[in-house]
């Protein structure tokens, strides 16, 4: 399954207004897709959205930072991660 296919579920949930469901799915995907930088980055982005929406740290900042850190570490090993992340962002609402 391609990186984009893995992320279709969370993207569709977000489009449908289910940010919590998207976060739950991404949290599970982080465990089963440990080397997929896009999964970790998207989790961090969605978690930031959740915290901004709630105007509180519903999701701990440390967990968000670790997801960003893991995404960037994987991205350095895989050429072109930023290009792929831009592609995914254009698909989000």
Determine the N-to-C terminus distance: 23 Å
Q: What is the fold-level CATH name, i.e. the topology? A: Serine Threonine Protein Phosphatase 5, Tetratricopeptide repeat
**Helicity level:** over 70%
How many structural domains can be distinguished in the coordinates?
1
Structural class: mainly alpha
Characterization of the model:
- With 93 residues, this protein is mainly alpha-helical.
- It has a single domain, classed as Serine Threonine Protein Phosphatase 5, Tetratricopeptide repeat (Alpha Horseshoe), CATH 1.25.40.
- 78% of the residues lie in helices and 0% in strands.
- The protein contains 5 helices and no strands.
- The chain has helices at 3-15, 19-32, 37-54, 61-77, 81-91.
- Helix 2 (19-32) packs antiparallel against helix 3.
- The relative contact order is 0.16.
- The mean pLDDT is 86.
Which structural traits does this protein have?
globular, Serine Threonine Protein Phosphatase 5, Tetratricopeptide repeat, 93 residues, mainly alpha
């Amino acid at each position: 399954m391609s990186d984009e296919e893995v992320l279709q579920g969370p993207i569709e949930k977000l489009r449908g207004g289910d940010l919590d469901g998207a976060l739950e799915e991404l949290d599970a995907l982080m465990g089963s897709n440990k080397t997929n930088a896009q999964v970790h980055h998207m989790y961090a982005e969605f978690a930031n959205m959740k915290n901004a929406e709630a105007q509180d740290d519903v999701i701990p900042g440390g967990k968000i930072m670790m997801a960003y850190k893991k995404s960037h570490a994987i991205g350095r090993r895989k050429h072109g991660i930023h290009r792929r992340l831009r592609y995914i962002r254009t698909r989000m609402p």
